[in-house]
Write a structure and sequence with these properties.
Elements lengths: L4 H9 L5 E2 L12 H19 L9 H12 L10 E5 H13 L5 E6 L3 H9 L3 E8 L2 E2 L1 H13 L4 E6 L15 H12 L2 E5 L23 E5 L10 E5 L2 H15 L4 H13 L2 H26 L5 E2 L7 E5 L6 H10 L2 E2 L1 E2 L12 E5 L5 H25 L18 H4 L4 E2 L12
Parallel strand pairs: 1-12, 3-4, 3-6, 6-7, 7-8
Antiparallel strand pairs: 2-9, 4-5, 8-9, 10-11, 10-15, 11-14, 13-14
Helix pairs in contact: 2-9, 4-5, 4-8, 6-7, 10-12
The chain binds pyridoxal-5'-phosphate.
């Protein structure tokens, strides 16, 4: 186990003078606090004996019914028996990896991918092989060739891990056209699909994206109340075919006995008594305003040669630097300038991503976001100037070898925003 780049960052990024564009913390200021307080009191007063007791390893039956209602918005027709409530979707990820993977097994994941998933995959000593993404999400042709290559090499691929909607960290979504193609590639190769969808209901156009699980009951679907309600309750879930679901429950019981009864009942009471769909609309508006602030600021201030994605939901923008900038080496200078981000290398299992970073717009106010982008752009501009003047080494900028199957796939796409530049001299000749 190794500390993730995000973990080390939390200490510095939480200083008040630093504008943190690093963490992906939901903006809880948007919650109706009085109503949440009432819900908690009701649960204690009316259902205390159940709420404070051990419960079922699979999760509260009423909550599992409600989860099916929530997923119906994404076209999923599931039975409450198919649902396993977990301690956040993070525990579901852990359980799925634990029951399927032996050391050395291969998991195929998007390039880049969610840092928390990579941590789980590493812990079970699996090998992560990345597949390219572009502005339309995971690239089917690259998935097909990667699976064929792994098969020819005699590798055992256990599953495809994908975040189809409002990707963390890439900020793009898999188009509807690509979804059946990706499902059929995996079906033909006999590879299971694990769909992680914590942001699916946070699309800025208000439309829910159809889940992969809606068209294939063999898909393992991971959901969460962390982004649509509150992460502090730690309530997520997995939907899985019968045989898998039984193993998930056994594995969960072995690690936590049961998901927390109190949190489950609070979430259940909240869904039963509060206008949760309206609350999701409130969150969408709050995040859309912040997304706009970040994109406007980047449009105004990003130095030549940078490129970034346009998220249509969720929390994140993926920012690609001109070739040669090393975002990990640049981070201490950024923190000194009172702005924090997550270097791209955190999101790759193979050490690539040094020329990219993840920016989160979910938490700061629009004004702070603009100020954070201003500080960041100053740091990048200084880095580029130093590099131009003294050569690559002086700014800590080095080209890292990229194992990305389609290097700069996200950065090269046309739907990402790009600031035109006169081509920068190659760092090794400048
Ligand atoms: C893609 C993705 N999956 C899973 C999680 C874990 O969420 P939780 O355990 O809070 O449900 C997160 C949290 O940021 C995430 O971004």
């Amino acid at each position: 186990m190794t500390a993730s780049e995000i973990r080390a960052l939390f200490a510095v990024a939480s200083r008040p003078e630093v504008v943190s564009l690093a963490g992906g913390m939901p903006n809880l200021a948007g919650l109706p606090w009085d109503a949440v307080g009432d819900v908690v009191s009701q649960v204690v007063a009316e259902r205390g004996l159940v709420a404070l007791q051990y419960g079922s390893g699979q999760g509260d039956p009423v909550l599992r019914e409600q989860i099916c209602e929530v997923m119906a918005a994404e076209g999923i027709e599931a039975h409450p028996d198919d649902v396993v409530v977990t301690v956040g979707s993070q525990q579901a990820l852990d359980l799925v990896t634990r029951i399927f993977c032996d050391p050395g097994d291969v998991i195929v994941a998007e390039a880049p991918s969610y840092v928390g998933a990579l941590g789980v995959f590493r812990q079970y000593e699996t090998e992560v092989v990345h597949v390219a993404m572009d502005e339309h999400g995971l690239v089917p042709a690259d998935l097909a060739t990667t699976l064929a290559r792994l098969d020819a090499a005699g590798k055992r691929v256990k599953f495809l891990y994908t975040i189809p909607n409002f990707h963390n960290p890439a900020g793009v979504s898999m188009t509807l056209e690509r979804r059946p193609e990706i499902l059929s590639i995996c079906q033909r190769a006999g590879v299971l699909v694990v769909e992680d969808n914590p942001y699916g209901l946070l699309g800025f156009d208000g439309e829910s994206r159809r889940a992969l699980r809606a068209d294939d009951e063999g898909v393992i679907y991971l959901g969460s109340f962390s982004k649509t309600f509150a992460p502090g309750f730690r309530v997520g879930w997995a939907v899985a075919p019968h045989g898998v679901r039984e193993k998930l429950v056994l594995a969960a019981e072995a690690s936590v006995l049961c998901p927390p009864s109190f949190s489950q009942l609070v979430v259940s009471q909240y869904l039963a008594t509060q206008p949760w769909r309206e609350q999701i609309k409130t969150f969408r508006e709050l995040y859309r305003e912040r997304r706009d602030a970040m994109l406007d600021a980047l449009d105004d201030m990003a130095p030549p040669g940078t490129q970034w994605t346009t998220p249509e939901g969720g929390f994140y923008v993926w920012l690609r630097m001109p070739p040669g900038v090393d975002t990990k080496a640049m981070l201490p200078r950024a923190v000194t300038a009172r702005v924090a981000y997550v270097p791209g290398t955190a999101f790759y299992a193979d050490g690539s991503g040094a020329d990219a970073m993840r920016l989160s717009y979910c938490y700061p106010t629009p004004e702070r976001i603009r100020e954070g982008v201003r500080r960041l752009c100053d740091v990048v501009t200084d880095d580029l100037e130093l590099r131009d003047t003294f050569g690559a080494g002086s700014a800590g900028a080095q080209r890292s070898p990229s194992a990305d199957p389609v290097p700069r796939a996200l950065g090269d796409s046309r739907a990402v925003n790009a600031r035109a530049s006169t081509p920068a001299p190659a760092p090794d000749t400048a």
